[in-house]
Specification:
Layout lengths: L5 H11 L1 H39 L3 E5 L3 H10 L7 E2 L1 H6 L5 E10 L13 E5 L8 H7 L8 E4 L10 E4 L2 E8 L6 H4 L1 E5 H14 L10 E2 L1 E6 L5 H11 L3 E5 H44 L1 H9 L4 H42 L8 H31 L3 H8 L1
Parallel strand pairs: 4-8, 5-7
Antiparallel strand pairs: 1-10, 1-11, 2-9, 3-4, 3-10, 5-8, 6-7
């Protein structure tokens, strides 16, 4: 006599009640997909924040007092902006106790990118002699300083190395492109030298329809690295105390805005996920209880034919595992697809940075979601499986008639 496998019998039972099986599978898929997409989304924002903050390289950002909100918006959401202050602020900042290094930057909002691209971009000029943000990348990747007729493009710009792009009537050669960070301040920016920016402004008077009004010696921000033993917050307070008309923004102050938004978002997502999980657990558990109750005669006959209590227990558990695996895989595919379609819209509305986690991290998150789905199925079917295995064959057959 051919031995019947538990897995084969479980699949047959699930196929027999297709509609109920499909509804339970859909329920597991919704919970798994919601959990996975939420986890990937939060992980992507934290990833962008970590890499973007590292790329910024500054512990404190010094900007004009009246332009604090513009500076934060530029860093967090990459909104192009232009504001200026006297370059003498740099000399004062670098003499403040606790300042290890300082460098200046210019923020320029171009009138348009080019005639052929509908891309919002941000021009950032830096001083190669003091810079510690772009220069290390140049030394590592290009192995040479950036010339005054060259620019570095962010990863989101539709440019390639050796392309030529004009700004305010001055053409620039693209010397290279930066790696993605998930922060628009870097990914949608064009970086050039400070000297190139002033020359571009001067030439724009005769070359551009809308000349760039930029007085030589002006700066937009001073980036500061603090000495060991000093906190960015403490140095920021000292800078504001010693220099009038400026705002010193500690890096933690910039990222804390995102972290607060993420914390609120995370609580909401966790609450929704928890509610969905409890509902899935209860509905799946109740469904398996009804399945066992309906199949008492069948289960009693199985026992009478020689099936042990362990066989009946394994049968119910196997059905739950198959259901959970199928629902989990469907949820992972659906959740990943939904996130890839909607993440751009969500990040634009929330004005938050986002960088998709690496493939190994995505694989770990997907595996974790699948394990979560299986555990949900096991927990939901545990009591019904115990109940089914304890039924006496004779009583089960009589009740099922």
């Amino acid at each position: 006599m051919k031995k019947i496998k538990i897995s084969w019998l479980a699949l047959k039972n699930l196929k027999r009640k297709f509609i109920r099986t499909f509804v339970l599978l859909l329920l597991v898929a919704v919970v798994t997909g919601t959990l996975l997409s939420a986890t990937i989304f939060i992980s992507g924002m934290q990833n962008a924040l970590r890499i973007g903050t590292y790329r910024l390289g500054a512990d404190v950002l010094v900007v004009p007092e009246k332009n604090e909100s513009q500076a934060k918006a530029a860093l967090l959401s990459g909104e192009p902006t232009s504001f200026y202050m006297d370059g003498k602020v740099y000399d004062k900042v670098k003499d403040v106790e606790g300042v290890k290094r300082a460098s200046t930057q210019l923020f320029i909002k171009p009138t348009s990118f080019t005639c052929c691209y509908n891309v919002e971009t941000f021009l950032v000029a830096f001083d190669p002699s003091t810079d510690f943000t772009v220069t290390p990348w140049l030394q590592k990747k290009l192995k040479k300083p950036l010339a005054d007729d060259e620019v570095i493009a962010g990863s989101a710009m539709p440019l390639m190395t050796d392309d030529i792009i004009p700004f305010f009537g001055t053409p620039f050669n693209v010397a290279g492109t930066l790696e993605p960070t998930g922060m628009k301040f870097f990914d949608q920016s064009i970086f050039m030298t400070m000297q190139a920016a002033f020359e571009m402004a001067e030439k724009s008077k005769g070359r551009s329809v809308q000349p760039l009004e930029l007085e030589k010696g002006k700066i937009s921000a001073v980036l500061v690295q603090v000495e060991d033993g000093f906190t960015p917050e403490r140095v920021a307070i000292r800078i504001e105390h010693q220099i009038e008309g400026i705002k010193a923004i500690a890096s933690d102050e910039v990222t804390s805005t995102v972290r607060k938004q993420l914390a609120g978002l995370l609580k909401g997502i966790l609450l929704i996920s928890a509610i969905l999980w409890v509902l899935a657990l209860l509905m799946t558990g109740f469904s398996f209880y009804m399945i066992v109750n309906e199949r008492q005669r069948e289960l009693g006959l199985l026992r009478a034919m020689g099936a042990t209590k362990a066989h009946v227990f394994r049968l119910i558990i196997t059905e739950a595992v198959i259901l959970s695996l199928a629902g989990g895989i469907a949820g992972i595919v659906a959740g990943g697809g939904l996130l890839s379609v909607s993440k751009t819209v969500i990040t634009q509305n929330l004005k938050l940075p986002y960088l998709l986690p690496s493939l190994p991290v995505l694989s770990e998150l997907a595996a974790g979601a699948l394990i979560f789905a299986v555990i949900t199925g096991l927990l939901a079917s545990l009591l019904p499986a115990v109940f089914a295995s304890r039924m006496e064959p004779y009583d089960a057959i009589r009740k099922g008639e």
